[in-house]
Amino acid sequence: MNNSFARRALVALVISAGAIAHAQEKETIRPEVGKPLQAAQELLKAHKPKEALGEITKADAVANKTAFESYLVERMRASAAAGAGDVPLAIKAFEAVIASGRLAPAESLTMMQALAGSYYRDKDYARAIAWSARYFKEGGTDPQLRLVLIHSYYLNGDYDAAAQEALADIQADEKAGKAPPEDRLQLLANAYLKQNDPNRYAWSLEKLVAYYPKKEYWADLITRTQKKMTFAERLALDVLRLRLATDNLDGPEEYMEMAQLALTAGYPSEAKKVIEQGYANGTLGKGVAADRHKRMRDLVDKQAADDRKSLAKGESDAAALADKDGVALVNLGFAYVTDGQFDKGLALMERGIARGIKDENRPQDAKLHLGVAYFMAGRKDKALEIFPTVTGIHGAADMGRLWALRARQPQERPAA
To answer: Which of 299, 298, 295, 300 is nearest to 274 (CA)?
Structure first.
């Protein structure tokens, strides 16, 4: 990143012998200054910056130099020092050249870039910030230097400023209809994390998941959401459903736990699909717990078969339809959905929600499950209508928001 700044600076700083001669027509350059500078120029052309520095030192040794002569000496010294890799000397010369006030605006911006990059490379983040900020204040627009500025704030421990600058870039990209760069979103998240701001950190994770839905981002976001003090334990199965949908079901124990919770909730077909997936991807059926996995597999196979027969006979439909509380219809409908009978299941769930649910938390849970059911059916458009309507402070609204993020991402086929 900073090497490009040095190259730009060299282009801006190199003075040809012709340029020096032309300068002599406007301002006086004495031969004892001009000749060693011309020699230095030839050495720079021959890619001999260290030798060029020797000639520049001769020019600098001339007594009583004019302001213009000093400017030319420092300008050439900056070029030679940058070429020789002498960062401290180049920095000192850059600053002297800029301070002369003789540069054209474009040249001045290029040298500010070089200075900011050099200070950043030298881990002098305070000065890197100062020169980067001045560069942008005077009209610079280079996106690489934006990164230097933001990283300098972060590495200098000013996490709030780093977050503000990163957020400004992210919002500008979003306003322009572009996906913000992943590294900018990561830096924003890390800046919030350094400030011990869990809410804004979670918000930045949601942004990362929205634009770059990587497994590890999802895992962090789901875990942090579940750890909120207000998050209700009754949503444990919903959390595992989302982990499954984001490829984050972690190890055999979580597969077994999800299957058990699904059985307990009355969804043996869902439990069966979870166990089948665990066997298919090699998570289950191995090691010292293989026999336990097989017992669970046999159990869910039997209960799923029994449940399918019961659903086929409509044995549960009449009771659910007769119940004045719509929760029975919602649960029955979700059972049909997990069995792959999407149309019938969704209709029953819609009917149950319309009937009304007495428990204060269950209406929000029911809407969440209806959104998940539409997602399972491959109808993401409907799911995205429902998830934003889920409210409450006990986790259902959080789960609805995360499921909405998942629903906006590719889905090749109806979920299990």
So the answer is: 300
**Residue 381 in contact with residue 360, Cβ under 8 Å?**
no
Q: What's the length of the chain?
A: 416
Question: Half-sphere exposure of residue 164, counting CA atoms within 13 Å on the CB side?
Answer: 5
* CB-count burial class (<10 Å; 0-12, 13-18, 19+) for 74: buried
Q: What is the pTM of this model?
A: 0.81
Nearest to 115 by CA among 148, 138, 137, 155: 148
**Spatial distance between the Cα atoms of 348 and 353, rounded to a whole number of angstroms:** 9
Q: Is 225 left (phi over 0), alpha (psi -120 to 50) or beta?
A: alpha
pLDDT digits (tens, 9 = 90+) for 186-196: 999 999 999 99
The tokens of 45 are what?
Answer: 């052309």
* Helix or strand (DSSP H, E) at 59: helix 49-60
**pLDDT tens per residue across span 162-182:** 999 999 999 999 999 999 999
R_g (Cα) of the chain, nearest Å: 33
C-alpha closest to that of 62 among 87, 84, 37, 85: 37
